[in-house]
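The material for today's practical consists of a large collection of protein records. An example says more than a description, so a record of this kind follows:
***
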Amino acid sequence: TGGSVPALLALPLALASSNSFFIPTRQVNARIMGPAGYRGKDFMKAGAPMTIIFLIIMLVMLNIIY
């Protein structure tokens, strides 16, 4: 893209890739999943609102900064 800032294109990608609240991809979540008896649905119920909040804050802050 002509005059766009490369950081503006790379930053949302980097931030969105760390947004993994839906599935137990982080080591801490994966370790407590079995002993605590959590299922994938439990992570999705808790992760959906957190993901939406994260995305809204990320987009607002990127608009403010850039």
Notes: Residues 12 and 58 are 8 Å apart (CA to CA).
